[in-house]
Structure formats: structure tokens, C-alpha cells
Design goal:
21% strand
């Protein structure tokens, strides 16, 4: 099964640069993470800076796996903003869609994993540069090249970024791109829970592929059972959706299409830091999809791609930080092969 995961031989950088590019739209920021684990933000003795932002993580993850990716978003005309642009460039992500704002700073987020296992966030965006991206600043040529256009929901919270997001989505759709959506719920950033629910669902029916977590299902459905297939199909699956994926952490994922549904078990590992696991999963899936857009129609091929994506997510949690821990294709295939051999 591992030998032909997402047509591995086709996935090499530069071979199909323009017609297989995955363009990721949204936020790029600096995460400040405590130098010790298991403490609250107030208890942390010191912090270490790390690049963050889910869409940017996905772009780097795809490039790390040998795919072709680009990022569109805005940072401050400041030291952190240029540092982030350089990090994307160093990771072979096309950053020509980045813009630099002279009147707002690059977004900052303080993130910690408390002793009880819950993540705690504190955001500094009042406003931050990512919220100030205007439609007129969009790199339209880059968007029109996208085989897949991927985005989250944080860019829907405030204007003018919301209008830029919607315009970019519409442009990508008209150009024939597959629209990929990972809501990536961050409640503290929204005015209220109801505003978050409404905002996230406002573009739901326009996406071709949606990835959600169990917690997000519970939130979006108003408390319904995240494990109930009927809930998922009735409340979250829409008529034009090609694939809905529900991630279950170390347990793996579930998938739903019009023709079939099922579950792909995960790879058990010792978790050090879960930051970026979902982004790594999305990177794995989109890398496979960019080389085989008919994945949606073939359950066997889809399961292979999801198996690969599970492996990407699993390897990421074994190291600290999102971007530093995103794996290479070789590392994922080796880990999956060893895990499969040890669990026979």
C-alpha cells in the first residue's frame, strides 16, 4: 500500500510548477512559546519565538513534502514580517503574494500547552497587519495559477481582509481551482461564539474539500455528537462538497464523500507538541491531491492519501514547533513503513 501513496514518483519539486501549485491564503504570524512545558502563560519563565499561522504552515508542509506551494497574506513592514517572508523563501514557498503594511505590526500569539493538556492562547492583533490585506493587493496571477486554493476562517473575522478573502476565493473558483477549507477555530479572535459559528459557516457551501476536528463539529452543530455519521452528513455535508474529513488526533480520521465514507486509523507516537499537527495533515492530503485530482472518486486512492496525511500529522507532534517539525516525504514513508511492520 505504501509504495504508491499519492503517486510518489510524480511528486518532485519543479516538475509541474505552475499547474499543480497549492496557494494558501491567510495569516502568518509569530508564535511565542514557553521555554518549558506544562505551564500557563503567566507562569512561563521565558518565551521562544517561532513562525506560525495555519495557512503558512500548510504551504511550508507541502513544499517540505516535495509539492509546489505559494502563500498570500500580509505582515507588518517590520523585522518580524521580513523574517517570516525569508522563512517561506528558505522553505521553497513562493512568497510573491505577501504584502507589507506600514501602519500595522506583524501579528503575535502567545501559545502554551498547560499541564492539563489544554492549549492556551493570547493574541496581539489590534489590528495586526494580516487583518489589513485589501482586495486591490491580491496577486491575481498567482491565484489564477492555483490547482488548489486553501484557506481558513481567521481571515474572515475583520474587514478589509474578509473582502479580500472572498474575492480571492471567487477568483480561484472561476479559474478552476479546487477550494480547500480548514476552519481552524480560534474562538478568542471572534467577537462571540455565535459570530464565529456564523462566520465559519458563511463560506461552507462554496468549498470542495473541508477538514474539521471533532471539537469543531461539536461547536458548529451546537453540541451534537461529533461521532454520529448522521449528524455529519445532515448538518455539515453540502451538495457540492467533494470530500469532508474529520480528524481524530492519534486515532486517525474519518472521510465522507457522496459515494462512500470510512475511517483510516492513525499512527501512534509519543506526542511532544501537538502544534501544527492538523496543518501537517492538510499538507499531506493536499500534496497528494495536487498530483491526483481524482482522489475524491477512488476510495482506495483516497485511503492511501489519508494514511499518508495521518503519518504527516503523527511525525509533526514528535518535535516542538509547527514549521520546524513538518516532515519530508521520505521521513513520512519510512515512519509509516516501520509502523506497519511493527504492528503486523
Amino acid at each position: 500500500m505504501l509504495g504508491n501513496i499519492c503517486d510518489i514518483e510524480k511528486l518532485h519539486i519543479g516538475a509541474t510548477k505552475n499547474n499543480s501549485v497549492v496557494v494558501c491564503f491567510g495569516e502568518l504570524l509569530i508564535d511565542f512559546v514557553p521555554t518549558v512545558g506544562g505551564v500557563s502563560l503567566a507562569e512561563a519563565p521565558a518565551f521562544k519565538k517561532a513562525p506560525g499561522g495555519a495557512p503558512a504552515n500548510v504551504a511550508v508542509g507541502i513544499s517540505r513534502l516535495g509539492g509546489s506551494s505559494a502563500f498570500i497574506g500580509k505582515v507588518g513592514d517590520d523585522e518580524f514580517g521580513y523574517m517570516l517572508a525569508d522563512i517561506l523563501k528558505q522553505n521553497n514557498v513562493d512568497n510573491s503574494g505577501m504584502r507589507f503594511d506600514q501602519s500595522a505590526r506583524t501579528a503575535l500569539a502567545f501559545v502554551t500547552l498547560r499541564a492539563d493538556g489544554e492549549r492556551e492562547f493570547m493574541f496581539f492583533r489590534h489590528p495586526s497587519a494580516d487583518m489589513r490585506l485589501h482586495e486591490s493587493e491580491l496577486n491575481t496571477n498567482l491565484i489564477k495559477q492555483a490547482k488548489i486554493f486553501h484557506y481558513g476562517s481567521i481571515s474572515l473575522i475583520e474587514e478589509p481582509c474578509k473582502s479580500a478573502h472572498l474575492a480571492a476565493m471567487n477568483m480561484a473558483k472561476r479559474s478552476g481551482s479546487i477550494l480547500s477549507y480548514d476552519p481552524n477555530l480560534r474562538l478568542p479572535l471572534w467577537p462571540s461564539a455565535e459570530a464565529a459559528r456564523k462566520g465559519i459557516m458563511s463560506i461552507w457551501d462554496q468549498s470542495d474539500l473541508i477538514k474539521v476536528s471533532e471539537d469543531e463539529i461539536t461547536f458548529l452543530t451546537g453540541g451534537d455528537d461529533a461521532y454520529d455519521d448522521n449528524v455529519v452528513m445532515k448538518k455539515l455535508f453540502h451538495p457540492t462538497l467533494k470530500l469532508l474529513v474529520v480528524t481524530e488526533g492519534s486515532a486517525g480520521c474519518r472521510y465522507y464523500t457522496k459515494a462512500f465514507k470510512g475511517r483510516v486509523p492513525g499512527m501512534k507516537v509519543k506526542a511532544v507538541d501537538t502544534t501544527g499537527a492538523g496543518d501537517a495533515f492538510v499538507s499531506g492530503l493536499l500534496t497528494c491531491l495536487s498530483s491526483d485530482v481524482k482522489l475524491f472518486q477512488n476510495e482506495e486512492r483516497l485511503r492511501e492519501a489519508l494514511h499518508f496525511a495521518n503519518g504527516c500529522g503523527a511525525l509533526t507532534v514528535t518535535e516542538r514547533g509547527a514549521i520546524p517539525s513538518l516532515p519530508t516525504k521520505t521521513a513520512v514513508l519510512d515512519a509509516l513503513s516501520k509502523y506497519s511492520a511493527s504492528n503486523k
